[in-house]
Amino acid sequence: MPHRPLSPGRAIARHIRFLFWLLACGLSLAACNGGGDAQEPGAVARDAMHGDLFIAPAGALCARRERDGNCVQPTSSSTDALALHKAMTNPGPDAPMINFDSPGYLIEGLRTKDSQGNPSMINPSMINPSFGLVWRHIQAGRNGFVVDGRRYGNAKDNPSDAMVNYTGEQGGGAVLMFNLEGGQNQAWFFIFGEHDLVSPRGTAGWGTALGLLTDQTDAPTTRKVTYLGRYRSFSGTAERLDENGSTDSLDIRVTYEAELDLHTGSLSGVRIDYTDPGTQRHTRLKLPDLTFKHSRLEGLSKTQRFDIEIDGPAHIDAPGEDKRPEAPRPDTPRIRHDFTIEALEGEIFGKQAARIHLMGAGPKGTFLVALVRKDLFELMENNPVIHYPLTPAKP
Q1: 8 Å CB contact between 138 and 145
Q2: Which residue ranges of the chain lie beneath pLDDT 50?
Q3: What confidence score (pLDDT) does residue 290 get?
């Protein structure tokens, strides 16, 4: 059966998909089992206001400007996600530009080619990828973006994929992904990324989560906040292993509970030793406790290293097919990846610390954890399976 061609929007989405699925994996994630302790809430609120766990408020959206004339990066009390989306996509020539400084995944590799040796548009992807974390300066506004000097415009809406595509003035492109139906959800955020960048290793893509950092005036009033998180990792060369579409790629998802202590800024870690009953893949790792300052992961926590082991049936990615059953076939090859996370970044987003993002990368693999607060449960998945419930700390 001939493979059906992809629309340009679908082709771009497929090309950068294993960059963005890491960021998007928590969009429909439920939160449960939150709580606090018996401490008087006002005392915690005062701590959050005058402490350094959360960033200082930036003021109303575009009320303050940088030296370049752009709006300072907004925080959670500055505006809401829908208003921010409207401001960024306003095409008016006098509309403001908004500054963001954001960490994101950088993936470099070789573009897959078709039988004639041309870049593939049927099943575009990367092979032999290298992973890293990079901070970039983003100027967003006038329905375009400037990223470290690279300009993107000529916006083309792609409603079926819930994204807008932008063309780079010097090649490449950018994508803004969103879900307007989730605009009232405090844990809602944007996904932004660049693709088809020229790289010494062939081509590169970079992706980040754009959101409103939780500021001191929007801090929770309980001593501790409990989250449900989804851990997800990706590793491998993505090279084809057989004619059935098996590739040297492994990914796995695990849900767990975590607790943020507003007095110490510490986020609890988790020890995972899990086999997915559907994919039959097994992973083992120990995510350490981490500390936040000014709504971002603080310096020492960003330098922690840890190992991840994952083995099981290879990922199946047949050209032209949008979805394959999770269960492997009897002839699917089994592979094993052992890799080290060498860099970590994390941010706390939204009102009342609605969401926490953790991302990590090493040369051979990468992971993301998306954590969502308890009281947003009704806006997300019902009755989520929690593989690793929170273990209360010993007195």
Answers
A1: yes
A2: 1-16, 26-41, 50, 114-115, 120-124, 320-323, 394-395
A3: 97
As a dihedral over the C-alpha atoms of residue 15, residue 192, residue 260, residue 40, rounded to 10 degrees, the angle is -150
Residues 289-316: tens digit of each pLDDT? 999 999 999 999 999 999 999 999 998 8
β-strand partners of 362: 365
Supply the Cα-derived Rg of the chain in whole angstroms. Answer: 21
Interior/surface letters 317-332, b for 16+ CB within 10 angstroms, e for the rest: bebeeeeeeeebeeeb
pLDDT for the residue 199:
85
CB 230, CB 384: distance < 8 Å: no
Neighbours of 223 (CB within 10 A): 18
Q: What are the b/e assignments for 140-169, b being 16+ CB within 10 Å?
A: bbbbbbbbeebebeebeebeeebbbbbebe
d(CA 149, CA 155): 18
**Residue 198 near residue 172, CB atoms below 8 Å:** yes
Token pair of 130, please? Answer: 């290298």
> Which residues are within 8 A (CB) of 125 and not within 5 positions of it... i.e. 6 or more apart?
14, 15, 17, 18, 111, 112, 238, 317
Structure pTM? 0.86
Per the CB < 8 A criterion, the answer to whether 340 and 305 are in contact is yes
Q: Residues 72-83: pLDDT tens digits?
A: 999 999 999 889
CA atoms of 157 and 240, how far apart (whole Å): 33
CA angle, 229 then 233 then 235, to 5°: 175
d(CA 185, CA 372): 11
Each residue's pLDDT tens digit, 86-115:
999 999 999 999 999 999 999 988 766 544
Q: Which residues contact 143 (CB under 8 A, 6 or more apart)?
A: 88, 89, 90, 91, 153, 155, 164
